[in-house]
């Protein structure tokens, strides 16, 4: 059993005494408790809104109290609902997942909130409502493969978050290692660990291979992503960008339903069509999916194969994503899975399509790929193949994460932060595309 961080055991103990709740049947330490834990935010996609999600061990009401003043009473109230989640492990541990969506938030304004019910409240957290419209410059932290053990990037991400460096987080799959492990206690521990980041910033996700157990149920239950696909695929607008999150895992775990590959592909195509109609307003199309199409790591992963499934589809021809993303002029593709950082030259079908030799990322003639899976987990870092491929621009085998600054409709700034080098920026690149003519390459 994993010990709880001191903060949590003390709080649940206090609550235990104050409420006189008995030591429990749920098998979780200090439970069952009505005290909210694992508090995190997500953006439901509707301007002026934010969803708060948390866990309790007994059913309680779901309320968020919020306001603009850092201290004193919280005058605003929002109600939501909870659903029980029964983990697939032998203990069938039962969590109550609460969701409350705050609406009509003032754009760019900082709020203070707490969540819970009369039976127990969380501590107070702060977040800034996202700005509306396309004319602002979102800053994102992007990474994948962050575990409950060896979460190397987390201390710096916490500090960055406290300093207000980001508007949102993109976690590109693989959480906790694994959320279902130890009867989902590892999932609980992970969600508590990320709380200092995730309770202050919309924490946007896609599923990775480590979420696979029990048909991705821990992933679907614990996060609250936009749309009605349980967070497997969805899209949202953020400033000048349209961000598409999808599951590469549908290509690999076919026993959960082959139809999912086709359903997702059709959804992707229609979403890309819509995004292209809106491209004058939101010029950037950014995708996030866990397993990359290309990589030059020294392992046997799909991305090391010439005809990778994500790139070329099932049987090398069905529902491949490279053609689709190229056809609709996707600008930037964010990946993880490999525990390293790799940036590719603009690429399509193994051909490098630099804007020019001197400025490869200015008017690139193919999508730009970033693989950022080195946030830290128990599996540690992934080595690279000895000889870099001609399409590989930068490779960093160090723990870290990516900062993505979407400056405006034409300029994106990408930086790689190294935790091994105390926060040093180890990659720094601008992607520049003209405002018009972005619906397709050529
Ligand atoms: C797995 O979940 C998906 C939706 O999340 C569902 O469509 C599919 O039928 C499920 N598969 C199995 C075998 O339960
Ligand atoms: C792309 O640009 C980089 C950097 O200038 C250069 O090293 C590489 O050879 C270029 N590739 C092609 C195919 O032009
Ligand atoms: C975007 O920002 C860059 C860098 O500040 C600037 O050079 C460029 O003109 C801006 N583009 C638009 C469309 O405002």
Automatic annotation (TrEMBL):
Its EC number is 3.1.3.2. It catalyses: a phosphate monoester + H2O = an alcohol + phosphate. Keywords: Glycoprotein, Hydrolase, Signal. The keyword Oxidoreductase does not apply. Residues 36-128 form the Purple acid phosphatase N-terminal domain. The keyword Signal applies. It is an enzyme of class 3 (hydrolase). Residues 1-27 form the signal peptide. CDD domains: MPP_PAPs. Residues 366-427 form the Purple acid phosphatase C-terminal domain. GO terms for molecular function: acid phosphatase activity; metal ion binding. Pfam families: Metallophos, Metallophos_C, Pur_ac_phosph_N. Residues 139-341 form the Calcineurin-like phosphoesterase domain. Belongs to the metallophosphoesterase superfamily. Purple acid phosphatase family. This is Purple acid phosphatase.
């Amino acid at each position: 059993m994993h010990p709880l961080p001191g903060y949590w055991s003390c709080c649940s103990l206090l609550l235990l005494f104050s409420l006189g709740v008995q030591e429990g049947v749920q098998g979780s330490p200090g439970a069952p408790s009505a005290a909210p834990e694992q508090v995190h935010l997500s953006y439901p996609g509707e301007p002026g809104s934010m969803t708060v999600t948390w866990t309790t061990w007994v059913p309680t009401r779901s309320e968020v109290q919020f306001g603009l003043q850092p201290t004193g009473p919280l005058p605003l109230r929002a109600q939501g609902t909870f659903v029980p989640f029964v983990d697939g492990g032998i203990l069938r541990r039962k969590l109550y997942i609460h969701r409350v969506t705050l609406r009509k938030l003032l754009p760019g304004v900082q709020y203070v909130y707490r969540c819970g019910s009369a039976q127990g409240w969380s501590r107070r957290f702060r977040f800034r409502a996202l700005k509306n419209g396309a004319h602002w410059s979102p800053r994102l932290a992007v990474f994948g493969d962050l575990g409950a053990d060896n979460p190397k990037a987390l201390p710096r991400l916490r500090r960055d978050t406290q300093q207000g460096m980001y508007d949102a987080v993109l976690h590109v799959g693989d959480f906790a290692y694994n959320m279902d492990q130890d009867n989902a206690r590892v999932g609980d521990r992970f969600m508590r660990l990320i709380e200092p980041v995730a309770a202050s910033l919309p924490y946007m996700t896609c599923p990775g291979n480590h979420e696979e157990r029990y048909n991705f149920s821990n992933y679907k239950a614990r996060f609250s992503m936009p749309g009605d696909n349980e967070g497997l695929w969805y899209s949202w607008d953020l400033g000048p960008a349209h961000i598409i999150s999808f599951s590469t895992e549908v290509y690999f775990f076919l026993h959960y339903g082959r139809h999912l590959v086709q359903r997702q592909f059709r959804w992707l195509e229609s979403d890309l069509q819509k995004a292209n109609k809106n491209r004058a307003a939101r010029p950037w199309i950014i995708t996030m999916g866990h397993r990359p199409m290309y990589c030059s790591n020294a392992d046997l992963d799909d991305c090391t194969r010439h005809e990778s499934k994500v790139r070329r589809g099932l049987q090398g021809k069905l529902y491949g994503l490279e053609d689709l993303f190229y056809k609709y002029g996707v600008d930037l593709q964010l990946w993880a899975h490999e525990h390293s950082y790799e940036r590719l030259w603009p690429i399509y079908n193994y051909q490098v399509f630099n804007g020019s030799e001197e400025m490869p990322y200015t008017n690139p003639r193919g999508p730009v790929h970033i693989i950022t899976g080195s946030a830290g987990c128990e599996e540690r870092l992934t080595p690279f193949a000895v000889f870099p491929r001609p399409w590989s621009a930068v490779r960093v085998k160090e723990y870290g994460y990516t900062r993505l600054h979407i400056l405006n409709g034409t300029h994106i700034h990408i930086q790689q932060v190294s935790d091994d080098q105390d926060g040093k920026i180890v990659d720094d690149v601008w992607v520049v595309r003209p405002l018009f003519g972005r619906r397709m390459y050529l």
